[in-house]
Specification:
Elements: E1 4-9, E2 12-17, E3 20-24, E4 63-65, H1 76-81, E5 87-90, H2 95-100, E6 105-108, E7 112-115, E8 118-125, H3 131-136, E9 139-146, E10 150-154, H4 162-171, E11 175-179, H5 195-204, E12 209-213, H6 225-234, E13 241-242, E14 249-251
Parallel strand pairs: 3-4, 4-5, 5-6, 10-11, 11-12, 12-13
Antiparallel strand pairs: 1-2, 1-14, 2-3, 7-8, 8-9, 9-10
């Protein structure tokens, strides 16, 4: 495979595929520039950690992929500095917002879309169980693939569901990016994947390389990298997932 994945911070990353750099879920604010996450147990401002790269790093992007538009996936800083002529790929529910925000090339992916030889397939997700899912709004994952490079599944802020399970069984992606911070709402509802889900997916799809992100930077995310590493080690599964540091580049 010829893809490169650079974890930036939280859910923000850059995927290099087929000669293109795709910026995923850009949250570009400096520490403390964003408010606390509503309906959670913490009043800490966000993000908690700095960007590992300068802002001019993001001038080198070729496209943007947005899984959903919560502020820890698309913030005001990103909206103010990113090139509005870049193509933006999103779920249909975010199309109007992105157009109104000034982006000139917005592509709402209902099922699939091809761009510059790169195939993108949208996978519907759920951000939380029950009523909380309606409160948080729609979220999607995307499988990005080329014949030469294989496939990478950007799962997004999706909890583990039968749809996620079917996706791994049917597509058997070469790589999957899992948001596993065990983010928690005020009454204890878990709204992202967890360490238990890494174990479940590793057993379900053992040939898929798992990369765990979205930790340490947002105040309602209760599982940090050190917690996940300890969790997997206790279960003898420390090799089940790569847990990159901010700024780390992974060859896929």
């Amino acid at each position: 495979m010829g893809m490169l994945f650079q974890h930036i911070r939280s859910a923000t990353s850059v995927l290099s595929v087929n000669g293109k750099k795709i910026l995923i879920d850009p949250m570009l604010s400096a520490p403390g520039e964003l408010p606390p996450v509503p309906f959670t147990r913490t009043l800490r401002r966000n993000p908690l950690t700095p960007l590992p790269v300068p802002l001019d790093f993001f001038e080198q992007m070729d496209a943007i992929l947005l899984t959903h538009r919560h502020f820890d996936h698309l913030d005001k800083k990103a909206l103010s500095i990113l090139n509005k002529d870049l193509p933006v790929f999103c779920q249909p529910q975010d199309y109007t917002f992105l157009q109104t925000a000034g982006f000139s090339q917005v592509f709402a992916i209902e099922q699939s879309h091809e761009w510059c030889g790169i195939q993108m397939k949208r996978i519907k997700g759920r951000h939380a169980p029950g009523f909380t899912a309606k409160l948080l709004g729609p979220v999607s994952g995307f499988i990005i693939s080329t014949p030469a490079d294989g496939s990478i599944y950007i799962v997004g802020d999706c909890i583990y569901t039968p749809t996620i399970e079917r996706t791994f069984r049917e597509y058997q992606p070469n790589v999957a990016i899992l948001n596993t911070p065990r983010a928690q709402m005020l009454l204890g509802t878990i709204i992202t994947m967890t360490g238990e889900d890494i174990v479940r997916i590793a057993n379900l799809s053992p040939d898929t390389k798992l990369i765990a992100v979205h930790m340490d930077a947002i105040s309602h995310c209760t599982f940090k990298r050190k917690h996940l590493r300890a969790f997997l080690k206790e279960r003898g599964m420390e090799h089940a997932a790569i847990i990159p540091d901010d700024g780390e580049v992974i060859t896929l």
